[in-house]
TrEMBL record:
It comes from the Bacteria. It comes from Azospira oryzae (strain ATCC BAA-33 / DSM 13638 / PS) (Dechlorosoma suillum). Residues 138-294 form the ISXO2-like transposase domain. NCBIfam families: transpos_IS1595. This is Transposase. Transmembrane segments: none annotated.
Length: 336
């Protein structure tokens, strides 16, 4: 029996020991390379000028030769205004990368020996980079769709006489949300090619039709379960359904096992690490699970480099820059 990829040496091309062994100059050079490549030219975040700007070696900063703006290797990125050494931020990305089911802010704060508030914002900034830089081109081929509910548990009262019917809408948790997933199958190998996730109040025909029209190419084959939210898709796609009350795979081959595979990782993240997802940032958590599922065959070194590049290419966060000073997102992101 062949060895699983994740158990092989090819899956381990980066370690925390390597990151913490970096000097400050090496960490600076790595982040600079991730942001601007190998050349001598860098980009001014203020005016966009690309040139060999004047480098102030004593401060590790550049001065733009066009607009005279002074900037650093993190200016205009998610790590702008950073107060910790760059090596700590690279270590945070490495810890985040190696946690296959995600990592909590509490664990990250202990691993890096920083305050919980620092770790909380840092982890969310990394998730935001994955959301900002995700590929949102339309899925094609065979596309599976499904939805799963989170934050729906209502604790029953102690005495039976005081308990309510939790199936009724008025007795359900107001934070209950549906995470909706669309996955394109990889017919050349096991698993799926790409995953897109969205958050809605509940599975409904209007939102499903809207998302399918935007993110699924015409001519694709859609696989879904028997929920009535997917009924309108028959008019636009070759839609094949499976009744999960009877079977996981129909005799005709219809199945949504790849969507269920995503929810398996998502639930392990929920129960094993996060325990509860806040509705404001549920979309980022779902997208993180999608990223990990899509890149499960990527070595941890490749994934680490990819995430650092995404962080370097993402603009300064509007949701988490000054988060603990009150600058927070005011509304959740729902499909509707």
């Amino acid at each position: 029996m062949s060895q699983h990829f994740l158990l092989s040496a090819q899956a381990r091309t980066m370690s925390l020991r390597q990151i913490f062994a970096l000097t400050d100059d090496a960490a600076f050079d790595y982040f600079r390379h991730s942001r601007w490549g190998n050349g001598e030219e860098v980009t001014c975040p203020e005016c966009g000028s690309i040139a060999r700007h004047y480098f102030i070696s004593t401060r590790k900063q550049w001065r733009c030769r066009d607009c005279k703006h002074t900037f650093s290797v993190t200016s205009g990125t998610l790590f702008a205004f950073h107060k910790l050494p760059l090596k700590i931020y690279l270590a945070a990305v490495a810890i985040y990368t190696n946690a296959v089911k995600g990592t909590s802010a509490l664990q990250l704060s202990r691993d890096l020996d920083v305050q919980y508030k620092t770790a909380f914002v840092l982890a969310h900034k990394i998730r935001e980079s994955l959301m900002v830089k995700r590929d949102e081109t339309a899925l094609d081929g065979e596309v599976e769709m499904d939805g799963a509910y989170v934050n729906g548990h209502v604790r029953p009262a102690n005495k039976k006489a005081d308990r309510v019917d939790r199936r009724l809408a008025e007795n359900q948790n107001p934070d209950k949300r549906c995470v909706f997933v669309m996955r394109s199958r990889d017919n050349d190998g096991p698993g799926a090619k790409r995953t897109l996730t969205f958050v809605m109040k509940q599975e409904n025909q209007a939102d499903v039709k809207k998302l399918a029209g935007r993110f699924v190419k015409k001519g694709s084959i859609v696989f879904a379960d028997e929920a009535n939210a997917y009924d309108p898709l028959h008019a636009y796609y070759d839609t094949r359904r499976v009744n999960h009350q009877v079977e996981y795979r129909s005799d005709a081959g219809a199945t949504s096992n790849q969507a269920e595979s995503f929810f398996s990782r998502f639930r392990r993240m929920q129960y094993g690490q996060m325990h509860r997802f806040g509705t404001l940032y549920l979309d980022n958590y779902a997208n993180e699970a999608a990223y990990r599922e899509d890149n499960r065959r990527m070595s941890n070194g490749e994934m680490f480099g990819d995430i650092v590049v995404k962080c370097a290419a993402s603009r300064t966060s509007r949701d988490f820059c000054g988060y603990w000073q009150g600058n927070r997102r005011l509304a959740e992101r729902l499909v509707s």
